[in-house]
Amino acid sequence: MHKDVSEILFTEEQIHDRVAEIGAAITEDFREKAGDDGIILISVLRGAAIFMADLAREIKIPCEMDYMAISSYGNGVKSSGVVRILKDLSSHIEGRHVVIAEDILDSGLTLTYLLKNLASRNPASLTVATLLRKKTKVQADVDCAYVGFECPDQFIVGYGLDYAERYRNLPYIGVLKPEVYE
Ligand SMILES: O=P(O)(O)OC[C@H]1O[C@H](OP(=O)(O)OP(=O)(O)O)[C@H](O)[C@@H]1O
Ligand SMILES: Nc1nc2[nH]cnc2c(=O)[nH]1
Ligand SMILES: [Mg+2]
């Protein structure tokens, strides 16, 4: 285990198995609805890149991939409260079935912003798959069709999740020791 991590919440194997289940559920739920066009999987960079890469390989219907970069945390452990688009989609999503792959729902600010932004482009449907959902005191009400794991209200890292751009490459998800950021 990395010296800056106090506890592993989800192991590489647990993550793999859960991502496979979510991929199978998306496959079944969209097989008929999306038909030959399939779905567009949208990853919220940078945190969700690893989740999306693994999830896409568990989806067995036609699946395009596109990326949007959004940031609100900067280099800290608290949301700045201001969500910024750093990179927009390359594809048009009007009339398409869109599945957003997000790594974590914390305050909900990022997904609330993203859902509003993407809904204005008139997709056929807009669905959220989040690997992690944190139970916080203040959380925007975001409807997530697929949730990998519920997690505690601690700052977590690994499997795409960073602190100051580090730890994204850890294969597991764990709690960052508070002394690292205090
Ligand atoms: O529900 P919220 O409180 O809005 O937090 C969730 C968001 O925060 C993180 O992104 P971050 O802004 O750190 O950018 P990153 O993905 O580049 O790390 C994470 O990847 C989610 O997108
Ligand atoms: N790395 C990381 N990013 C986040 N963004 C929102 N919550 C978190 C968290 O707990 N860890
Ligand atoms: Mg971050």
UniProtKB/TrEMBL annotation:
One of its GO terms (biological process) is IMP salvage. Residues 13-163 form the Phosphoribosyltransferase domain. It is found in: Cytoplasm. It comes from the Bacteria. GO terms for cellular component: cytosol. Its EC number is 2.4.2.8. Pathway: Purine metabolism; GMP biosynthesis via salvage pathway; GMP from guanine: step 1/1; Purine metabolism; IMP biosynthesis via salvage pathway; IMP from hypoxanthine: step 1/1. InterPro entries: HGPRT (IPR050408), Hxn_phspho_trans (IPR005904), PRTase-like (IPR029057), PRTase_dom (IPR000836). CDD domains: PRTases_typeI. Belongs to the purine/pyrimidine phosphoribosyltransferase family. This is Hypoxanthine phosphoribosyltransferase. It comes from Ellagibacter isourolithinifaciens.
